[in-house]
Amino acid sequence: MIEDREREKENLISLKRELKKEQTLLKSTLVSIYMKILKQGLDIREEGLRWVIKCLWQLEEPIPLSAFPAFCDEESSQFLLSMAQYDIELADYHSRLAITIYQYTTNLKI
């Protein structure tokens, strides 16, 4: 019984290691794809390049100014970074507001 548990524990540890490696590989692949999209300036979504910046930030990836397309000067790159940050802050405010409204309406019912 104890040996079965130990084997099961070792299998789980091994599986965890494999999944961690796969996660690292997937993250690396995503970062590579997003960096290529950013460098090429492919703004295929409504948000333009901001969506790529936010995706990279969600992956905790720093974005150097050299990662931006050649047609973006430093000021334009900084502007895009700022706008992406404002988008994130705005989404956070919307989320907080929704929670506050829910709490307020819930308290009214009591």
From TrEMBL:
This is Uncharacterized protein.
